[in-house]
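TICKET #2291
ISSUE: user wants both folds in one file
ATTACHMENT 1:
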Amino acid sequence: QVQLVESGGGLVQAGGSLRLSCAASGRTSSNNAMGWFRQAPGKEREFVAGSSWNGGYTSYGSSVTGRFTISRDRAKNTIYLQMASLKPEDTALYYCAIGRGAASMDINSVTRWGQGTQVTVSS
Protein backbone atom coordinates (compact mmCIF):
# COMPACT_ATOMS: atom_id res chain seq x y z
CA GLN A 1 0.00 0.00 0.00
CA VAL A 2 1.03 3.57 -0.65
CA GLN A 3 1.19 6.14 2.09
CA LEU A 4 1.60 9.87 1.63
CA VAL A 5 2.94 12.08 4.37
CA GLU A 6 2.81 15.85 4.00
CA SER A 7 4.85 18.37 5.92
CA GLY A 8 5.88 21.99 5.77
CA GLY A 9 2.65 23.77 6.50
CA GLY A 10 2.44 26.62 8.91
CA LEU A 11 1.59 30.23 9.46
CA VAL A 12 3.00 32.82 7.10
CA GLN A 13 2.35 36.45 6.36
CA ALA A 14 0.82 37.55 3.09
CA GLY A 15 3.48 37.80 0.43
CA GLY A 16 5.61 35.16 2.08
CA SER A 17 6.61 31.71 0.99
CA LEU A 18 6.30 28.13 2.18
CA ARG A 19 7.50 24.82 0.86
CA LEU A 20 5.38 21.75 1.31
CA SER A 21 6.74 18.24 1.05
CA CYS A 22 5.03 14.95 0.38
CA ALA A 23 6.92 11.73 0.86
CA ALA A 24 5.52 8.60 -0.72
CA SER A 25 6.19 5.16 0.63
CA GLY A 26 5.10 1.78 -0.56
CA ARG A 27 4.30 0.77 -4.09
CA THR A 28 3.54 3.42 -6.67
CA SER A 29 2.61 3.07 -10.30
CA SER A 30 4.47 4.76 -13.12
CA ASN A 31 1.08 5.62 -14.56
CA ASN A 32 0.13 7.67 -11.53
CA ALA A 33 0.21 11.40 -11.27
CA MET A 34 1.04 13.05 -7.98
CA GLY A 35 -0.04 16.43 -6.86
CA TRP A 36 -1.68 18.74 -4.42
CA PHE A 37 -5.22 19.71 -3.57
CA ARG A 38 -6.46 22.10 -0.96
CA GLN A 39 -9.64 22.66 0.96
CA ALA A 40 -10.69 25.67 2.94
CA PRO A 41 -13.52 25.57 5.48
CA GLY A 42 -16.87 25.69 3.76
CA LYS A 43 -15.37 25.18 0.33
CA GLU A 44 -14.90 22.22 -1.95
CA ARG A 45 -11.56 20.58 -2.35
CA GLU A 46 -9.75 22.09 -5.33
CA PHE A 47 -6.84 21.13 -7.51
CA VAL A 48 -3.63 23.06 -6.88
CA ALA A 49 -0.83 21.40 -8.81
CA GLY A 50 -0.01 18.06 -10.34
CA SER A 51 2.95 16.26 -11.80
CA SER A 52 3.56 13.25 -13.95
CA TRP A 53 5.90 11.56 -11.50
CA ASN A 54 8.40 10.29 -14.04
CA GLY A 55 7.52 12.28 -17.12
CA GLY A 56 8.12 15.75 -15.78
CA TYR A 57 4.82 17.23 -16.93
CA THR A 58 3.11 19.64 -14.60
CA SER A 59 -0.21 21.37 -14.33
CA TYR A 60 -1.58 24.08 -12.08
CA GLY A 61 -4.89 25.36 -10.93
CA SER A 62 -5.78 28.77 -12.26
CA SER A 63 -5.68 30.39 -8.84
CA VAL A 64 -2.04 29.47 -8.22
CA THR A 65 -0.48 29.60 -11.67
CA GLY A 66 2.63 31.75 -11.63
CA ARG A 67 2.97 31.61 -7.85
CA PHE A 68 3.30 27.93 -7.00
CA THR A 69 5.75 25.40 -8.36
CA ILE A 70 5.57 21.65 -8.07
CA SER A 71 8.74 19.62 -8.24
CA ARG A 72 10.05 16.19 -7.38
CA ASP A 73 13.03 14.43 -5.93
CA ARG A 74 13.10 11.02 -7.50
CA ALA A 75 15.74 9.66 -5.16
CA LYS A 76 13.63 10.55 -2.13
CA ASN A 77 10.31 9.65 -3.76
CA THR A 78 9.09 13.04 -2.69
CA ILE A 79 7.22 15.88 -4.32
CA TYR A 80 7.25 19.47 -3.23
CA LEU A 81 5.07 22.50 -3.56
CA GLN A 82 6.95 25.77 -3.46
CA MET A 83 4.44 28.49 -2.67
CA ALA A 84 5.34 32.11 -3.19
CA SER A 85 3.46 35.39 -3.01
CA LEU A 86 1.00 33.80 -0.65
CA LYS A 87 -2.38 35.37 -0.16
CA PRO A 88 -4.92 34.99 2.63
CA GLU A 89 -7.16 33.14 0.20
CA ASP A 90 -4.49 30.46 -0.03
CA THR A 91 -5.32 29.49 3.53
CA ALA A 92 -6.44 25.88 3.46
CA LEU A 93 -5.63 22.34 4.37
CA TYR A 94 -3.31 21.07 1.68
CA TYR A 95 -3.47 17.44 0.67
CA CYS A 96 -0.97 15.42 -1.26
CA ALA A 97 -2.56 12.97 -3.64
CA ILE A 98 -1.89 10.16 -6.06
CA GLY A 99 -4.23 9.73 -8.97
CA ARG A 100 -4.83 8.08 -12.28
CA GLY A 101 -4.10 9.87 -15.51
CA ALA A 102 -2.54 13.17 -16.39
CA ALA A 103 -0.79 15.81 -14.34
CA SER A 104 -3.95 17.90 -14.50
CA MET A 105 -5.49 15.42 -12.13
CA ASP A 106 -9.20 15.46 -11.59
CA ILE A 107 -10.35 14.96 -8.04
CA ASN A 108 -12.22 11.88 -9.18
CA SER A 109 -8.96 10.36 -10.36
CA VAL A 110 -7.43 10.42 -6.89
CA THR A 111 -6.76 7.02 -5.43
CA ARG A 112 -4.80 7.98 -2.33
CA TRP A 113 -4.83 11.01 -0.08
CA GLY A 114 -2.33 12.25 2.44
CA GLN A 115 -3.45 13.42 5.84
CA GLY A 116 -3.15 17.10 4.99
CA THR A 117 -1.01 19.94 6.23
CA GLN A 118 -2.41 23.29 7.25
CA VAL A 119 -1.33 26.49 5.55
CA THR A 120 -2.51 29.72 7.07
CA VAL A 121 -1.73 33.07 5.48
CA SER A 122 -2.27 36.14 7.59
CA SER A 123 -3.01 39.57 6.20
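ATTACHMENT 2:
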Amino acid sequence: QVQLVESGGGLVQAGGSLRLSCAASGSTFSSYAMAWFRQAPGKEREFVGRISRIGGRTYYADSVKGRFTISRDNSKNTVWLQMNSLKPEDTAVYYCAATSGTSYYTEPGNYDFWGQGTQVPVPS
Protein backbone atom coordinates (compact mmCIF):
# COMPACT_ATOMS: atom_id res chain seq x y z
CA GLN A 1 0.00 0.00 0.00
CA VAL A 2 0.96 3.61 -0.32
CA GLN A 3 0.13 6.67 1.75
CA LEU A 4 -0.53 9.94 -0.04
CA VAL A 5 -0.41 13.47 1.34
CA GLU A 6 -1.37 16.52 -0.71
CA SER A 7 0.02 19.96 -0.08
CA GLY A 8 0.24 23.33 -1.75
CA GLY A 9 -3.40 24.30 -1.77
CA GLY A 10 -4.57 27.78 -1.04
CA LEU A 11 -6.51 30.74 -2.34
CA VAL A 12 -5.57 31.93 -5.80
CA GLN A 13 -7.08 34.75 -7.80
CA ALA A 14 -8.63 34.02 -11.17
CA GLY A 15 -5.92 33.89 -13.80
CA GLY A 16 -3.31 32.89 -11.28
CA SER A 17 -1.26 29.74 -10.88
CA LEU A 18 -0.70 27.17 -8.19
CA ARG A 19 1.28 23.96 -7.91
CA LEU A 20 -0.03 21.11 -5.81
CA SER A 21 2.21 18.34 -4.54
CA CYS A 22 1.40 14.78 -3.58
CA ALA A 23 4.01 12.98 -1.52
CA ALA A 24 3.89 9.21 -1.36
CA SER A 25 5.31 6.79 1.15
CA GLY A 26 4.97 3.18 2.20
CA SER A 27 5.43 1.39 -1.11
CA THR A 28 7.13 1.56 -4.47
CA PHE A 29 5.85 4.77 -5.98
CA SER A 30 6.71 3.80 -9.52
CA SER A 31 4.33 0.83 -9.30
CA TYR A 32 1.37 3.20 -9.41
CA ALA A 33 -0.21 5.31 -12.03
CA MET A 34 -1.32 8.54 -10.39
CA ALA A 35 -4.28 10.77 -10.90
CA TRP A 36 -5.69 14.02 -9.65
CA PHE A 37 -9.37 14.44 -8.89
CA ARG A 38 -11.33 17.36 -7.55
CA GLN A 39 -14.62 17.81 -5.78
CA ALA A 40 -16.50 21.07 -5.67
CA PRO A 41 -19.12 21.71 -2.97
CA GLY A 42 -22.29 19.81 -3.73
CA LYS A 43 -20.80 18.00 -6.71
CA GLU A 44 -19.41 14.55 -7.40
CA ARG A 45 -15.72 13.89 -7.46
CA GLU A 46 -14.38 14.74 -10.91
CA PHE A 47 -11.40 13.42 -12.82
CA VAL A 48 -8.73 16.01 -13.56
CA GLY A 49 -5.77 14.15 -15.01
CA ARG A 50 -3.63 11.05 -14.92
CA ILE A 51 0.04 10.23 -15.34
CA SER A 52 1.55 6.86 -16.13
CA ARG A 53 3.84 5.00 -13.77
CA ILE A 54 7.08 6.24 -15.26
CA GLY A 55 5.60 9.57 -16.25
CA GLY A 56 5.81 9.18 -20.00
CA ARG A 57 2.13 9.68 -20.70
CA THR A 58 -0.47 12.04 -19.35
CA TYR A 59 -4.16 12.48 -19.94
CA TYR A 60 -6.40 15.36 -18.91
CA ALA A 61 -10.04 16.16 -18.65
CA ASP A 62 -11.23 18.52 -21.36
CA SER A 63 -12.01 21.14 -18.75
CA VAL A 64 -8.34 21.55 -17.81
CA LYS A 65 -6.47 20.71 -21.01
CA GLY A 66 -3.93 23.36 -21.86
CA ARG A 67 -4.05 24.82 -18.37
CA PHE A 68 -3.05 22.00 -16.02
CA THR A 69 0.05 19.81 -16.17
CA ILE A 70 0.79 16.66 -14.21
CA SER A 71 4.35 15.57 -13.60
CA ARG A 72 6.14 13.12 -11.35
CA ASP A 73 9.58 12.32 -10.05
CA ASN A 74 9.75 8.76 -8.83
CA SER A 75 13.11 9.35 -7.17
CA LYS A 76 11.33 11.87 -4.93
CA ASN A 77 8.10 9.87 -4.57
CA THR A 78 6.17 12.93 -5.63
CA VAL A 79 3.58 13.89 -8.21
CA TRP A 80 2.64 17.49 -8.96
CA LEU A 81 -0.32 19.25 -10.45
CA GLN A 82 0.65 22.57 -12.00
CA MET A 83 -2.45 24.72 -12.45
CA ASN A 84 -2.32 27.82 -14.62
CA SER A 85 -4.96 30.29 -15.74
CA LEU A 86 -7.18 29.30 -12.87
CA LYS A 87 -10.88 30.00 -13.08
CA PRO A 88 -13.53 30.26 -10.37
CA GLU A 89 -15.00 27.00 -11.63
CA ASP A 90 -11.73 25.29 -10.68
CA THR A 91 -12.60 25.87 -7.03
CA ALA A 92 -12.59 22.49 -5.32
CA VAL A 93 -10.84 20.18 -2.94
CA TYR A 94 -8.13 18.47 -4.95
CA TYR A 95 -7.15 14.87 -4.30
CA CYS A 96 -4.34 12.71 -5.55
CA ALA A 97 -4.97 9.03 -6.04
CA ALA A 98 -2.98 5.93 -6.93
CA THR A 99 -3.84 2.79 -8.84
CA SER A 100 -1.84 -0.33 -9.48
CA GLY A 101 -4.09 -1.22 -12.39
CA THR A 102 -2.82 -1.26 -15.93
CA SER A 103 -6.00 -0.05 -17.60
CA TYR A 104 -6.66 3.59 -18.26
CA TYR A 105 -8.91 4.81 -15.45
CA THR A 106 -10.82 8.04 -15.01
CA GLU A 107 -13.35 6.87 -12.42
CA PRO A 108 -12.66 7.34 -8.72
CA GLY A 109 -13.73 3.78 -7.92
CA ASN A 110 -10.80 2.39 -9.86
CA TYR A 111 -8.21 4.03 -7.61
CA ASP A 112 -6.90 2.18 -4.60
CA PHE A 113 -5.34 4.89 -2.45
CA TRP A 114 -6.25 8.49 -1.80
CA GLY A 115 -4.85 11.53 -0.12
CA GLN A 116 -6.97 13.62 2.20
CA GLY A 117 -7.30 16.53 -0.19
CA THR A 118 -6.20 20.13 -0.31
CA GLN A 119 -8.46 23.12 -0.87
CA VAL A 120 -8.07 25.42 -3.84
CA PRO A 121 -10.46 28.39 -3.69
CA VAL A 122 -10.49 30.61 -6.76
CA PRO A 123 -12.76 33.55 -5.99
CA SER A 124 -14.48 35.46 -8.74
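RESOLUTION: both attachments delivered.
EXTRA DETAIL ON ATTACHMENT 2: The first strand starts at residue 3 and ends at 7.
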